[in-house]
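Standup notes
- DV: blocked on the single-chain target, sequence here:
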Amino acid sequence: MASSRPSSKTPAAKTRTRRAAAGPDIAATLAKLDSTYPDARCSLDYANPLQLLVATILSAQCTDKRVNMVTPALFTKYPAAPQLAAAPLDQLERDIQSTGFFRNKAKNLRAMAAALVQRHGNNVPNTMDDLVNLPGVGRKTANVVLGNAFDINVGVVVDTHVARLCQRLGLTQHTDPVKIEQDLMRLIPADRWCRFSHQLIAHGRSVCMARNPDCAHCPLLSHCPDGKSRMGQKAAGKRG
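- DV (later): unblocked, structure below
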């Protein structure tokens, strides 16, 4: 006799399982992203790899808009790694205070710059291993620098927007950024990794917001299991 025990899976887990079973239409999703966000790019302002590295470190728990307000004066005051490494810590903290977590960021910026001076001839390295061995630099920051400053696709930048949208689109069942990146690297062509992240970030900011996604006007709706479910629930609510 078949067991009548209810499934132990949560509704969210069941939804993710159904999405994975159905399988995403990657080619169609990428094509729609290309047509909707053909000019998506890094929203941090920079002129060289060091500036992008600094700006990306500052962007942690801070908006890119705020970072772009702070960095022009910062880059003028500290134009290269030696100047940044020698910056008085209390002054550097004041320079970046409005980006939040400024004490830890200032400490990391100085240590990162010192490492560039001591180990890399004042230059930002262009390999993942060298970048993640710099103070204050994790895999996400390294991916940003490699993909944008050096045009090297080593991985996929997974920020909060990318993580949220990939879950909604059924591209991953995971919540851990490292596991999400691994899923995306298997699904997305390598030469698209950097552009794909920029397009999802643009979409997450303009349409697929965390709290109130605008599914009714979403160009990816036909490829989005979560969006279809939300629209179905709204339609059922209206009928009820």
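- Follow-up: Residues 102-119 form the longest helix (18 residues).
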